[in-house]
Amino acid sequence: MIVLSAAVVAIVFAAGTFLLLQRDLFRIVAGILTISNAATLFIIASGLSRGQAPILPLDSGPVSDPVSQALALTALVIGFAVAALLLVMVYRLYLSHHSLDAQAIQTSERRSAALQRREGDPYVEEVPEEEIDEDPGEAQEREVTTP
Amino acid sequence: MSYAIALSFLVAALAPTIVRFAGRASPWILAILPASIFAWFLSLTGRVREEGSIVQQITWVPGLDANLTFHLDGLSLLFALLVSGIGILIVLYGGGYLKGHPQLGRFYLFLLFFMGSMLGVVLASNVISLFVFWELTSFSSYGLIGFIHEKERSRAAALQALLVTSLGGLVMLVGLILLGSMGGSFELTQLTLQDSLSEHPFYVGALLLILAGAFTKSAQFPFHFWLPGAMEAPTPVSAYLHSATMVKAGVYLMARLNPALGDTTLWLYLVGGIGLVTMVVGAYLALAHTDLKKLLAYSTVMALGQLTMLIGLGTELAIQAMVVFLLVHALYKAALFMAAGSIDHETGTRDVRELGGLAGVMPLTFAASLVAALSMAGLPPLFGFVGKEIVYDATLSLDSGAALFTTFAVLANIAVVAVAGIVALRPFLGARRQTPKAPHEAPFTMWIGPALLGVGSVVFGLLPALVGPTFMVGAASAVLGEPQSFELALWHGFNLPLLLSAITVASGVILYLAWPRLRTGFGNFDRLFGEVPRLGYEWTLDALARVAAWQTRTIQNGSLRWYLFVIVAFFVALTGATLLFRGGIALPDTTGSVHIFEVIVAIICAGGALVVVLARSRVAALASLGITGYALALLFVMFSAPDLALTQLFIETLSVILLTLVVIYLPPLRRSEATPGRTRPVVRDAVVSALAGGLVTLLVWGVIANPLDMTIPEFYGENSYTQAHGRNIVNVILVDFRAIDTMGEILVLALAGIGVFTLMRLRANRARAPRVFAYRLAPEEERGLVPAERTDIAGPLPDDDEWEQDERGPNS
Fold it and tell me: Does A62 contact B at CB distance below 8 Å?
């Protein structure tokens, strides 16, 4: 059972790690969820004292460790809270950037930071629709020629 | 002694309040503090002379041998009297100089804080507490140089002085700790009794490190550049900290450690040599300047160099010369600084080229600065003459190098004579010049200081016996580590020092007269020895900033993937290495039966996780996530964890619902086309993930190999019903024994809930959004991203890392 549970932890953790390293934000969140699952299983598997459930009255014989169970329970709930928050953030990011690609969002934000530096005050009270719809590339090119 | 220091700090803290309520009387009220400290130290003179030293110990951190030990011997007494005595005059002078300044309270706060710290430096016997006070003086100097903080130059000068002196101080701390370990004690009183320290293998290292602190603090070449820069401070500060007291802390430390570390060839060459160079360079750098304060600052550098040189020479006569010149210099330099400040205050300029003929309008200031300048030039019957005679006497009587040291001492003193003339004669004599302000005689508080110090120069010159046996002999005995007896005299008869004095004064007068024509020539000298070290400092600062910027760009490049990769890689590398080298690897116990049902659940759980990785659509991914979660719940059942299994079921159900809700709004998962040569990140990720998984397996085995400590579970098992009246031990732990933890957990959940709610409700306000935000919403490429091919707009941006560019095509 030890070998088996260790193997499950290993596979689930490796899968979570791989997901974590991807570009798609949704997969990153899935990776975090998977890793927290692996972590819970890790606590239970390594706190292994297999036996009857820790509910009184106990018969004689081995009992499962209630402490690691209590710890794991806490971890589960916290993991859920984190995942929920992350998911909503992913959703918001998609709404604002129309992309879930971490790389593309990063590049875009770098460029906008550069634009902000170049254009001075980044906050504009009113952005008319025309300005939003105009091809940003052209406008920027004109500015670039005279840095 | 500790009371004197503590009282200084206390009054410093109260100073702003006192200034607010006492108004014009505040300088007089505040001057009571240094005056009473001065009187108290003066009253201890007899005791110090009889007993040699007075010791007071307060235990501070006994475990680290860091104690607040204070001891007062001849050298400490001389310094303490200088610090508190000149302190009286400066407190009064500062009141006149900064009269009506809205920040006068802050000025007094730092000034008195400095006085307390400086007293701490010269009284501390424990080297650790000495270091603490040492750095406090640097800190108060920072506050005082940058007092006029609206000026950028003040701020830069303050920072420069702080960086140079406090970095030197930190280096010195290492040296002091080395010294402590060499001598087996952190008490200076113990260390100075040992004479075998110079044979210790750490000697060279400790000496170099300590001298780094002393040289930076006392503005020795090539660290001398900060002192002229510090002239941005209000003049009372320059007169006090940067001529008479703080800059002499380095000299004090070298003198103090002379019995322990001195009397070696290295000490002679290093301390004596650097002192010699500083003395000559400082003296002639002064002549390149026309700003009164800069002139005085460089001549202070010269004086510090001469003091350092004399300590380096280390003969009895040299040490006598050192302690005498210390007092001589403090008397005339503080007076000249105050006079220069008065000129600046009254006329609005301190450029000697714009000043002239002030003798008529400022007679008292003129008289005081004339006396001080005569003492500086070393003319009889002033105290400066006594000082210079004994310096020449010391260099002439050296066994080796007498000619060299004497020649350079004479050369430096020639320049000093000229500087004395420039600062004390030129502004007052000749024709009146037009100045920005119409000058009047300085107010009483501003001329009394220079006048009293001038009187001191005259009286001590005529009657050197007043200070000789009491203070000079005691101080010299402390520096040499053995009792001394000598007498000071104004007139030594016709001898070689007198001849040298005559030569010095005559050449100095010629130099003074020729100075207006020679000044530009000295400018070149200034560019080499004054500017180059300063540029070196600026270059170092720049380089530091560039390295920091480069480091930030490299480590924090803004790529989430890179951060996550680094985190995972470090987890694998560090944990793996620890397991490997600390012998944590253990093979599991393979005995024990495994039920076929357990194998099936395990396969479902692991398989689900793998399917998430391989899934080609978001829905498939979330379904397999759910499968893993539910299988996990079943595994918990097998581990006899019913509560955990129930919770996992709930959580997983909620998670899947939430995921589904979000996925509805998300675009389809974009699978990248396989592009040749672009598989590297995938392979790399796979390798790192596999390593991480393997490592976790080892960790599980390693943990299990250690016997589980059952005392805690047993405690809960025994007490959960008797104390908490619950049969389910896990529940009891959560809601009773560790209830506060659970409350924290509920708080986290609530916060997450608020976060989720807010983020869902928040509407992107396009009108108020940043402009680039609006660009991103433009239909460019259907995604609204600032288009990637517009690399032109990313011109000045650092390029993405190579491996990231590799993946621009695949969008996994």
Answer: no
pLDDT value at residue B254: 92
Assigned domain for A112 exists: yes
If you search the block for the tokens 């719940």, which residue do you land on?
A: B633
SS (H, E, C) B295-334: HHHHHHHHHHHHHHHHHHHCCHHHHHHHHHHHHHHHHHHH
Q: State yes or no: ipTM above 0.85.
A: no
Q: Could you give the CA distance from residue B290 to residue A7 in angstroms, rounded to a whole number?
A: 82
Which of B625, B644, B665 is closest, CB to CB, to A44?
Answer: B644
Q: How far apart are CA B326 and CA B300, in angstroms?
A: 11
Cβ contact B669–A26 (<8 Å): yes
Please give the tally of structural domains in chain B. Answer: 1
Q: Which residue has the tokens 């806490």?
A: A74
Residues in chain B with CB shorter than 8 Å from the CB of A72 are 641, 644
Q: Tell me the C-alpha distance between A19 and B613, whole Å.
A: 6
- Whether residue A7 lies inside any domain: the answer is yes
Chain B's closest residue to A109, CA to CA, is B786
Among A65, A87, A98, whose Cβ lies nearest the Cβ of B713?
A65
Which domain CATH number covers A37?
Answer: 1.10.287.3510
Q: What is the pLDDT of residues B240-296, one digit of tens each?
A: 888 888 899 999 999 989 888 888 888 888 999 999 999 999 988 888 888 888 889
Indicate the residue of A20, A69, A135 with minimum beta-carbon distance to B644: A69
Is the residue at B196 inside a domain? no
Hey, what long-range contacts does B660-663 have (CB within 8 A, 24 or more apart)?
B660/B622, B662/A26, B662/A87, B662/A88, B662/A90, B662/A91, B663/A26, B663/B618, B663/B619, B663/B622
SS3 of B784, please? Answer: coil
Q: How confident is the model over B685-701, as a mean pLDDT?
A: 89
Chain A, residues 6-45, CB within 8 A of chain B, namely 6-24, 26-28, 30, 33-34, 37-38, 40-42, 44-45
Neighbours of B504 (CB within 10 A): 24
User: Cβ A46–B699 below 8 Å, yes or no?
Assistant: yes
Q: How many domains does the structure of chain A reveal? A: 1
Which chain A residue shows the shortest CA-CA distance from B608? A12
- Using CB atoms, which residue from A21, A70, A80 is nearest to B688? A21
Q: Indicate if the pLDDT at residue A145 is higher than 50.
A: no
Check CB contact under 8 Å for A100 and B666. yes
- If phi over 0 gives left and psi between -120 and 50 gives alpha, with beta otherwise, what is residue A61? left
**Residue at token pair 């700090």:** B9
Looking at per-residue pLDDT, the higher value among A147 and B231 belongs to: B231
Q: Which residues of B touch A141 (CB under 8 A)?
A: 790, 792-793
In a domain? residue B390: yes
pLDDT confidence band for B153 (50 / 70 / 90): confident
Range of the domain at B280: 263-555
**Range with the poorest average pLDDT among B256-265, B317-326, B682-691, B798-807:** B798-807
Asked whether residue B329 is domain-assigned, the answer is yes
Interface test with A, best of B700, B716, B773 (most A CBs within 10 A): B700
Alpha carbon distance B553, B345 (integer Å): 49
Phi/psi of residue B718, each to 5°?
Answer: -75, -35
Q: Which residue range is the domain that position A62 belongs to?
A: 2-121
Question: For B616-642, how does the pLDDT look when each residue is reduced to its tens digit (9 = 90+)?
Answer: 888 999 999 999 999 999 999 888 888
Q: Do B647 and A73 touch (CB under 8 A)?
A: yes
B600's tokens? 């099936």
Residues of chain A numbered 70-99 and touching chain B (CB < 8 Å): 70, 72-74, 76-85, 87-92, 94-99
- Shortest Cα distance from B333 to chain A (angstroms)? 51
How many interchain CB pairs under 8 A, A with B?
Answer: 385
Whether B269 is covered by a domain: the verdict is yes
Give the residue-averaged pLDDT of B375-401: 87
